[in-house]
Write the structure tokens for this entry.
Amino acid sequence: MRISARFSALISLFLTCALAPLFAQAPAASGSSYLLLSQDPAFLEKISAFSTTVYSVSRTRLVKLSVPFAGLDPELAAKLRPVSPGEVFNGPAAKGEQKAADPAVLELTSKVDGRRLMGYTEGITMTGKRSASQLDASAASGNRLAMDYIAGAFKDMGYAVERQCYKDRKADKECNVVARRKAAQPGAKSILVIGHMDSVGHENAGADDNASGAAGVLEMARVLTSYSSDHDLVFVTANGEENEMTGSYACVKRMKASGELARVAWAINMDMIAWNRDGIIEIETNKEFSAHADWVGSLARVYTKLQPHIAMPAWGSDHVPFLEAGIPTYLSIEHWEDHTPCYHQACDKLESLFMDYASDIVRLNLAVIAGKARLTPLKP
Ligand SMILES: [Zn+2]
């Protein structure tokens, strides 16, 4: 880390410690504030030359520019979004009234199997280099092997599997893997669960980011094979998330064109769910869905050991294209304030994962589905 990056990290640490308790809600101030849509260290260093940090709590960082927005390098400008203070929040979810656990939901969440979750995480991590760009290098790339592994796992569970291909690469096609199961009633609303399967491309790495979240999608799909549902279920392992979320944008576009998107009542994203030391989960969405996020937080208190925090506005993962399309969606993610020290590095390996924590996030997201859909256990 170079000096200026260290200096800006110190400033943001100071702001986090000094202001966080006072300003879970962002302070009102004159001039436009911009949400950082990337926390890549190289970007943070570049933008620090043209801005000051005015709010920095965990995932949510705002800056004010010292130069006109129009004068910024377009590459930097693309990673900023103007926000008003009322849109911004990062802190504990509203407490509300503590509800009693529903035995049927406890039965559902008890089916989450941490060893299987680890097995799926390992299966995806150990495919090699999973960057979608690797499909330019070889048709036997890790990205291709991960698509094959995930499609095979969904098929074994009995789901209808689609390779939703949206981009021709030199040696192969770049595709999301989509698994579906229809409700008994035709024309039912659907619930969509997403997590990206690609990585930044280090060999047999990206275990936390995001083999863990893609494995969470598989484990939720597996648990739900024991239930019928009055909603269609759609599970998406997105490709290309690390390349400007190309897979989830393509998924939204494709589903909009086919009419499927209009039936999506609710979507859940898991990205980086397996590294944590303080039990805090961030539930990230946009202001219009903050009540939903608080409701998710209330379920976390009833059905898991997680401490729910709400983060707004949304940035940087596969929930964003769905939110932009008006679908109620949240991201479940490890506490960003203390996220994996191996973020986007070759050391993001299987050995460093916290699978009890990841299992709890999977339990929470199943409890959310149980709160939205009527699930009926199938006879064994
Ligand atoms: Zn990720």
Notes: The CA atoms of residues 4 and 45 lie 7 Å apart. Residues 196, 209-210, 241, 271-272, 317 surround zinc ion (CB under 6 Å).
